[in-house]
Write a structure and sequence with these properties.
- The protein has about 775 residues and is α/β, with parallel strands linked by helices.
- It contains 31 helices and 20 strands.
- It has 4 domains: about 220 residues, Malonyl-Coenzyme A Acyl Carrier Protein, domain 2; about 70 residues, Alpha-Beta Plaits, CATH 3.30.70.250; about 270 residues, Aldolase class I (TIM Barrel), CATH 3.20.20.70; about 100 residues, no CATH class.
- The radius of gyration is 31 Å and the shape is elongated.
- The two termini are about 40 Å apart.
Length: about 775
C-alpha cells in the first residue's frame, strides 16, 4: 500500500483538469452548482491564480483524480496534503463528501483572499531552525515561518513591508529568497481573523471518522476524529509542518508515496527529506513536548498501526455499478418508513453522506408529500441523484397511486422505491416507461429509476421482465407514453434494482435472508440471459440488518447493496415521537412480535411490531379474533362492547363509525356504500379505525396512551441496540442517521478484513503444510 499525497496552492496551471472534466461531467456540474461559475472557463482564464478561485479549482481537479485512483487501487496506508491539499486527503479518507469539500474550500479561499494585504517568500538552502534564528537576529517580529517544506526549503509570511525587509536581510546573510505570487500572509498569525471566521463555517459540518490516517499540517500527526474542525480552522493561521509530517510517516515504516497531481512537487520534497539525516531517532515528538511528547507520539503510533494486508474500505463494499448508477459513495440505502417516519431530514442527511434514502410517503397526503419533495430538492440541489420517494401499490385505490405518480413526474422525482406490488400496475409502468429515451449509441437511457422491494420469486420475475405489453399498449392508446417509448420498453426491465426483503418490521413474509437472496440472484442472472439486457439489475438485501455481522453476511452472500429500516427509526432524524424512540432504544431482539395488519385486516395479514411497553399486539389480535367469530358489532356482548369502547377506542362505537364514515365518504364512497350494505364490512372498518388511531398515538407521543402505541419494528433494532451498548451512539439522541450508517459500514469493512484475513491465513498454512505431510507419509 502506498501513501497518497496532494499538492496545494501553487501547483495550478492553465488547462489543468480538462481531461478529468470530460470524464466526470456530473461531478463537474455538482461542483459548478456549489460554486456558481464554470470550472471550464476558470481553468483557462486569468482568475485561476486568484486565491478565491485557485483553491476550489485545485480541490475539484484533485478530487476527480482521487475518484479514479480509488476505483483501481486499494485503500492507502496514509494520506497527506500540503495546506489546501489536506482537504483532498480528508476527502479521500471519507471525512466529508465531494459537495461539502467544494463548499468548504470555496469558503476557505474566499476568507483567505479577504484576509488583508501581505506577502510570502520562499527561503532556499536553509533549514527551519536556521530561518527562525536569522529572523530573530534581524528583529523581524512580524514575520512567521509559514511552511517547513524540506530541510532546505522554508516559506516566510507576514505584512508586505516586513517580508521585503526580511528578504533583504536573509539575502545579505547568504540565503536565496524568492517572493511568491500571493497577496495575503497565509499560515501566519495575521490570518487569525480568517481562521476564526472559518471556524464558524466548519462548525456547520458533521465530519466522519477517516477510513485511514490523514496527517494534520498543524500537528504533523494523524487527525483525531472530533478535532478535524479545530485543526482545519487552526491550519489557516499555523505553519505547515511538512517536513515533520513526512518524517512521521517514514518512521512508521512508510516508503511508497504517490502524488495525485500532474506536477510532482511534493515528491521532490519527500526525496530530499528521505535522504536527509533525521533530527531525532524513533518517533518524532512535537516541539516542546520533551519526554512526555515522545510518550504521546508512541501512543499515537500504536493507534495508526499498519493496516492489514487485505485492504477493504467502506466505500468498496457492494457493487460499484450500483454506486455509479445512483451517484452514491456507499452501497447503502435506507428504506422508506410510512407516514414520513423516513422523513425529509433523514433523506437529506443520508444523501449528503453519499447514501441512498427514500421519503416515506405512505399514509401522507399528496400536499404534504409535495412540500417535502420541494424541501429535499432545495436542500440537496437538482444534481443529487441519491434520493427518491416511496410508491406503495394501492389495489383498492388505484387512482391514488396514479395521482402519486403524477406528482412524482411533476416534481422531477427520478428514483422510487416500489413496495407492496404483486403485479405491475398502469401507474408504475407509466412512471418507468415515460422516462425512457434512445441514446445516440443505440442504447436506452433510463430516466426514471426503480428500486423494487420484493420477497417472492414471482414478483421478482415481474420486475426483472420488461413492462407487460398489454399495459404498454394501453398507455400508448391513452397518450400517456409515446410509441417510441413503447418500443424501448421491451429492452429494459421494470426495475434497475431489487431489494430482497427478509424478515423485517411492518409487513413481512418473515423470509430467511440466506434462502431468499441466493434464489433472487440466480433468477436475476437467468432473466438477464433470457432478455439480453445491456445492464445487470442490482440485487440488494433488507431485513435483519442492524449489526456489522449481518451486513457482512449480506455482502458475502453477494448482495450488491444493503438496505436498513428499523434501525433508522431510532435516530434523531426519524419522523416519529420522542416517546417512541425512548421505547425503541431499550428493546432487544425478543421484544418484537407479529400482530394483525390494519390495512389488510380482513385477510389476516400480519405486521411485525414492538411488544415491549405496549398492549397493541394483544389488542390487535383480540380485534381480529372478534372479527373471525362475529358477523356484526351488534352481535357483541355488552361486556365486549364496554371493553372496546372504554379500553381500546376511548370513545363509543357510534363515534368511531361516524369518523370512519366521514373519511370514506370523502376518499372512497364506494367502500362506504359496501359497508352500509354489509354489517361484516362495517365491523371491519370500525376495527380498522383502531389501527389508524394507534399509529397516530405513537407518532404524536401522547404519554397517556402509550399502551396503545403501534410501532412497526423488526428484531434488527434490538441487535443494533446491543451492538451500540456502551458507545457514544447508545442513546438515540446521539444517533444521527448518517453517523449510524457510517459506523455500520466501517465496522462491516473491518470485520470482513479480519475474517477474510483469517481464512486466507488458515488456507496459506494448510497449503504450506501439505508438502511436509507428503514427505512424512513417503
Amino acid at each position: 500500500m502506498a501513501t497518497i499525497i496532494f499538492p496545494g496552492q501553487g501547483s495550478q496551471f492553465r488547462g489543468m483538469g480538462v481531461d478529468l472534466f470530460s470524464r466526470h461531467p456530473e461531478r463537474v456540474r455538482e461542483a459548478e452548482e456549489v460554486l456558481g461559475y464554470s470550472l471550464h472557463a476558470l481553468v483557462d482564464g486569468p482568475d485561476l491564480d486568484r486565491t478565491a478561485f485557485t483553491q476550489p479549482a485545485l480541490f475539484v481537479v484533485n478530487a476527480l483524480r482521487t475518484m479514479e485512483w480509488r476505483d483501481v487501487r486499494p485503500a492507502p496506508r496514509f494520506a497527506a496534503g500540503h495546506s489546501l491539499g489536506e482537504y483532498n486527503a480528508l476527502y479521500a479518507a471519507g471525512v466529508f463528501d465531494f459537495e461539502v469539500g467544494v463548499w468548504l474550500v470555496a469558503e476557505r479561499g474566499r476568507l483567505m483572499a479577504r484576509a488583508g494585504a501581505g506577502k510570502m517568500a520562499a527561503v532556499l538552502g536553509w533549514s527551519a531552525t536556521q530561518v527562525r534564528a536569522a529572523l530573530a537576529e534581524l528583529g523581524a517580529d512580524e514575520v512567521d515561518l509559514a511552511n517547513d517544506n524540506s530541510p532546505t526549503q522554508q516559506v516566510i509570511s507576514g505584512p508586505g513591508e516586513a517580508i521585503e525587509r526580511a528578504a533583504e536581510g536573509l539575502t545579505r546573510m547568504g540565503a536565496k529568497v524568492i517572493e511568491l505570487r500571493v497577496r495575503s500572509p497565509f499560515h501566519s498569525r495575521h490570518m487569525r481573523g480568517a481562521s476564526e471566521a472559518f471556524a464558524q463555517t466548519l462548525a456547520r459540518v458533521d465530519f466522519h471518522p477517516p477510513r485511514f490516517p490523514v496527517i494534520s499540517n498543524v500537528e504533523a500527526r494523524p487527525h483525531e476524529h472530533g478535532r478535524v474542525a479545530e485543526l482545519l480552522a487552526a491550519q489557516i493561521a499555523a505553519p505547515v509542518r511538512w517536513t515533520e509530517s513526512v518524517r512521521y510517516m517514514l518512521e512508521q515504516g512508510e516508503d511508497a508515496f504517490e502524488e495525485l497531481g500532474e506536477r510532482q512537487i511534493l515528491t521532490k520534497m519527500i526525496a530530499e527529506i528521505r535522504s536527509a539525516r533525521p533530527q531525532r531517532e524513533g518517533v518524532a515528538a512535537a516541539p516542546g513536548e520533551g519526554d512526555r511528547g515522545q510518550e504521546r507520539a508512541w501512543e499515537r503510533s500504536a493507534e495508526v498501526a499498519p493496516a492489514p494486508a487485505l485492504a477493504l474500505a467502506p466505500d468498496q463494499l457492494g457493487s460499484a455499478q450500483f454506486r455509479a448508477r445512483h451517484g452514491l459513495r456507499f452501497a447503502y440505502a435506507a428504506g422508506a418508513m410510512y407516514k414520513g417516519i423516513a422523513s425529509k431530514a433523514l433523506v437529506i442527511r443520508l444523501a449528503r453522506a453519499g447514501m441512498m434514502a427514500f421519503l416515506g410517503t405512505g399514509g401522507m397526503s399528496l400536499e404534504a408529500v409535495a412540500d417535502d419533495l420541494e424541501a429535499i430538492r432545495a436542500a440537496l440541489g437538482p444534481g443529487c441523484r441519491c434520493w427518491g420517494a416511496n410508491l406503495l401499490a394501492s389495489v383498492e385505490r388505484p387512482e391514488h397511486e396514479a395521482r402519486t405518480v403524477d406528482l412524482f413526474l411533476r416534481a422531477g422525482v427520478d428514483l422510487i422505491e416500489a413496495a407492496a406490488f404483486m403485479r405491475m400496475s398502469p401507474a408504475l409502468v407509466r412512471y418507468r416507461v415515460s422516462g425512457l429515451r434512445a441514446r445516440g449509441d443505440g442504447g436506452v437511457e433510463i430516466g426514471n429509476r426503480v428500486v423494487a422491494k420484493i420477497s417472492r420469486p414471482e414478483v421478482a420475475r415481474a420486475f426483472l421482465s420488461p413492462p407487460p405489453a398489454a399495459l404498454v399498449d394501453a398507455l400508448v392508446a391513452a397518450g400517456s407514453i409515446t410509441p417510441a417509448q413503447a418500443q424501448l420498453a421491451a429492452r429494459v426491465p421494470m426495475a434497475d434494482d431489487l431489494c430482497v426483503e427478509a424478515d423485517s418490521g411492518g409487513h413481512t413474509d418473515q423470509g430467511v435472508a440466506g434462502v431468499l437472496l441466493p434464489r433472487m440472484l440466480r433468477l436475476r442472472d437467468e432473466l438477464r440471459a433470457e432478455h439480453g439486457y445491456a445492464t445487470q439489475v442490482g440485487v440488494g438485501l433488507a431485513g435483519g440488518i442492524g449489526t456489522p455481522e449481518a451486513a457482512a453476511a449480506a455482502f458475502i452472500m453477494g448482495a450488491d447493496f444493503i438496505v436498513t429500516g428499523s434501525i433508522n427509526q431510532c435516530t434523531v432524524e426519524a419522523g416519529t415521537s420522542d416517546a417512541v424512540k425512548d421505547i425503541l432504544e431499550t428493546i432487544d431482539v425478543q421484544d418484537v412480535t407479529c400482530a394483525p395488519s390494519g390495512d389488510m385486516f380482513e385477510l389476516g395479514a400480519k405486521v411485525q411490531v414492538v411488544r415491549k411497553g405496549t398492549l397493541f399486539p394483544a389488542r390487535a389480535n383480540r380485534l381480529y379474533s372478534l372479527y373471525q367469530h362475529y358477523e356484526s358489532v351488534n352481535e357483541l356482548s355488552s361486556a365486549q362492547l364496554r371493553q372496546l369502547e372504554d379500553k381500546y377506542f376511548g370513545r363509543s362505537i357510534d363515534e368511531v363509525w361516524a369518523e370512519t364514515a366521514r373519511y370514506y365518504g370523502r376518499v372512497d364512497p364506494e367502500v362506504l356504500a359496501r359497508a352500509e350494505r354489509s354489517a361484516k364490512k362495517r365491523m371491519a372498518l370500525i376495527f380498522r379505525w383502531y389501527f389508524v388511531h394507534s399509529t397516530r398515538l405513537a407518532l404524536s407521543g401522547d404519554p397517556s396512551k402509550r399502551r396503545d402505541y403501534q410501532i412497526h419494528c423488526g428484531p434488527a433494532l434490538g441487535a443494533c441496540n446491543r451492538w451500540l451498548a456502551g458507545t457514544a451512539l447508545a442513546p438515540w439522541r446521539a444517533r444521527r442517521v448518517d453517523a449510524l450508517a457510517s459506523l455500520l459500514l466501517e465496522e462491516t469493512a473491518a470485520l470482513l478484513r479480519q475474517r477474510l484475513g483469517w481464512l486466507l491465513a488458515a488456507n496459506s498454512q494448510l497449503l504450506a503444510a501439505q508438502p511436509v505431510r507428503a514427505a512424512a507419509l513417503g
